[in-house]
Amino acid sequence: MNPNPQIIVLDAGGQYCHLIARKVRDLGVYAEVRASETRAEELSSAKGLIISGGPSSVYDPESPTVDPSIFAQGQPVLGICYGQQLMAHLLGGDVRRGDKGEYGLATLDLDHTPDLLFAGLGGPQQVWMSHRDTVYCVPEGFSVVGRTATCAVAAVAAPTRGLYAVQFHPEVVHTTRGKELLANFVFRICSCVKDWDPRYRVPLIEQEIRDCVGDRNVFFFVSGGVDSSVAFALCLRALGEDRVRGVYVDTGLMREGETAFVSGLPGVSVEDAQEQFLTALAGVTEPERKRHVIGEEFVRVQERVIEARRLLDEHWILGQGTIYPDTIESGGTNKAALIKTHHNRVAGIQRLMETGRIVEPLKSLYKDEVREVGRELGLASELLDRHPFPGPGLAIRCLCSECDAPVRQTAEGWVIPVHSVGVQGDSRSYAPILAIERVDHARGTELVNRLTNVNRVVASVARKAPLEQMRVRACSLTPQRLARLRAADAMVRRLSHQSGFDHRVWQFPVILIPLGTAEAPDSIVLRPIDSVDGMTAQSVVMPAMLLDGICQGLLALEGIAGVLYDLTHKPPGTIEWE
Ligand code: XMP
To answer: What is the mean pLDDT of residues 219-230?
Structure first.
């Protein structure tokens, strides 16, 4: 049994809402998430409340709110991002729409105050911001204790009332002292005691699996990635070998060597569906459409396999390795805005879920927690330390275009009309890319924040022809383009592994975009990033020698006109390009 939560996080719809609860649990204190509108008396047993961020504006009709009585029951409350704006708004302050958003890293200048929340934290420090609205005027009794260059009210306190709020996100790793701030709130202000140990997790998950599965058996479509393998192993342990089966679907969208690797796993057989997927994807260019097509084909294959193996009767249910970011970024929580559709949340799978024929043992865990669980289960580090690879495979790394279009030169660089996906605040964006000449991350960040018509900045690091002579051409997912991407990806992986660079990045997507010349119609984008959980990410500086070697190797491949290096952090660029 879980303990009663000492901290309750009120979900105002932000992507990071559950991350807050998890960070509190990491401090050894049991925390749970509740709907923001939960009545104050139902929250009164907790020692403290945290109001999460969210995509709304306090002035939007039907924007999330909280029961205002929570501010008067003597229970400490911490507002984060939208939570700060909501607290200010409800208590008589003034919140205004910002002229421009503030996304990504910022420097917070925090007063040296005796306030417990900021104890020992005064001075300049790196924080992570994702907002447009700001508090313009604080409510009576509050004082402003921190600010950034573009946000005059970045931290506020009314210590005598136990009310605190920050505009930045202390729960993400890029806020360097965020953990200390949360610890101050939890221990110094709320006087919580340690009552939670992450080792409770595995037996709890196993029990959840047994409760969900009952006396049925579980059938998995494994991808060979960390998530489905850990979910599979958990089910094996919870239910025993006789009750768990795995099938690997060869979609034709996997990387080089993938099928051989996965078919070597114990208890897993291979279903060849390459032609089916490639036929369904022919002519499809739009990212969300690609995801839907893949999702639907997955369901078709699943249904075919299930029928062929007589798994349709009620003795079997489907197991999945869905992890927490997959559910929130698909709008799976109460209010999180739709950032993208994941292939395992399309209608077909949804139907299986609605009829209760699905078990997702990892759905409340983040990637790093999944790896920890895998280690506890004794899985090989060769498997657990693989970079994450998305379910829809190379399809979301092979960009397509509806029409032909020229590259356009501007004062800042070249605007390349390939639309990639990005995330700004809690919503998603589709915008062209800006290419600049040098690998300069600071300049990339400055440009992407300043320019409204692009959501990524890349450096043009190698090319067979000048950028102004290249064009974006209309194209979709063809076997030839996928083969080109597969070869490029295999080469980058090999060189990155040989140099040891693969251990210094969290993920290293290699993307094919339809930018080039008549002889060499595509270009490659390198996207090495560092992250902890995939929710936020930073573009990583590559060693010059490795970058040179990769560029030489890629330009020697058939059909490749140039190499671009993505300098964009997440946000505003997502990790994948779609
Ligand atoms: P984005 O592109 O949203 O990616 O910044 C965050 C992390 O999620 C992975 N990703 C997926 N994983 N199925 C998956 O299993 C998917 O449909 C999917 N889409 C993105 C991505 O590789 C990154 O690690």
So the answer is: 88
Nearest atom, ligand 1, residue 531 CA: 24
Counting atoms of ligand 1 from 1, which one is nearest the CA of 367?
Answer: 24
Query: What pLDDT does residue 312 have?
Result: 63
Total Cβ atoms within 10 A of residue 90: 17
Compute the distance from residue 48 Cα to the ligand 1 centre, in Å: 33
Q: Is 428 in the pocket of ligand 1 (CB under 6 A)?
A: no
Residue 507's alpha-carbon distances to 343, 385, 502, 536, 539, in angstroms, are 20, 10, 8, 12, 10
Distance from residue 381's CA to the centre of ligand 1 (Å): 21
- Residue 295 Cβ inside 6 Å of ligand 1? The answer reads no
**In the annotation, is 137 catalytic?**
no
Say if residue 108's pLDDT is above 70. Answer: yes
Name the token pair of 539: 């573009």
pLDDT tens-digit map of 116-158: 999 999 999 999 998 889 999 999 999 999 999 989 999 999 9
pLDDT at 349: 58
Looking from the CA of 279 toward its CB, the CA atoms found within 13 Å total: 5
Report yes or no: 92 and 139 within 8 Å, Cβ to Cβ.
yes
Q: Is 327 in the pocket of ligand 1 (CB under 6 A)?
A: no
Average pLDDT over residues 342-368: 71
pLDDT at 274 over 50: yes
Distance, CA of 492 to CA of 506 (rounded, Å): 15
Cβ contacts of 114 within 8 Å, gap of 6 or more: none
Q: Are 456 and 433 in contact (CB under 8 A)?
A: yes
Torsional sign, CA 7, 12, 18, 19: negative
What is the tens place of the pLDDT at every residue in 33-85?
899 999 999 999 999 999 999 888 899 888 999 999 999 999 999 999 999 99
CB of 399 closer than 8 Å to CB of 578: yes
Ligand 1 mean position, distance from CA 317 (Å) = 25
Binding site membership of 388 for ligand 1 (Cβ less than 6 Å): yes
Q: E strands along 86-122, which residues?
A: 94-96, 102-110
Active-site annotation holds for 343: no
Between the CA of 191 and the centroid of ligand 1 the distance, in Å, is: 38
* Mean residue pLDDT across the chain: 90
Q: Is the CB of 422 under 6 A from ligand 1?
A: no
